[in-house]
Design a protein that fits this description.
Elements lengths: L2 H17 L2 H7 E7 L4 E2 L1 H14 L4 E10 L2 E9 L11 E9 L2 E9 L7
Parallel strand pairs: 1-6
Antiparallel strand pairs: 1-2, 3-4, 4-5, 5-6
Helix pairs in contact: 1-2
Amino acid sequence: MTATDNKTLASRVYEAINRQDLATLDELFDPHIIRHAMGEVGIERARAAVANAFATFPQRRFVVEDLIAEGDKVALRVTVHGVPMPPGEPLPLILEIFRIENGRVAEIWGAGTLRRPDA
């Protein structure tokens, strides 16, 4: 896949997440996807993470602000909208790297600034 193909794939992941379209995520994620930050392996865990993200704030939306692709990796900067924030606070931010293999996301490394509601 080209860098453009990989960037398109990464964008499609967040489009599917925003629609809570788990069937499309099944197509975009490797069945044995590794989510390093969470220490999780497998599509079922990734699906559960999407469901949980919207359980707390159903109006949550992710906006891909930047995509940079090189080789089999795509770096993303994503802002999170639709979650309550104190006045003057910046939007929560997610930074991720996707590794693409055989046209699917095989690994994700990430970090973010969104705090849990009970934190």
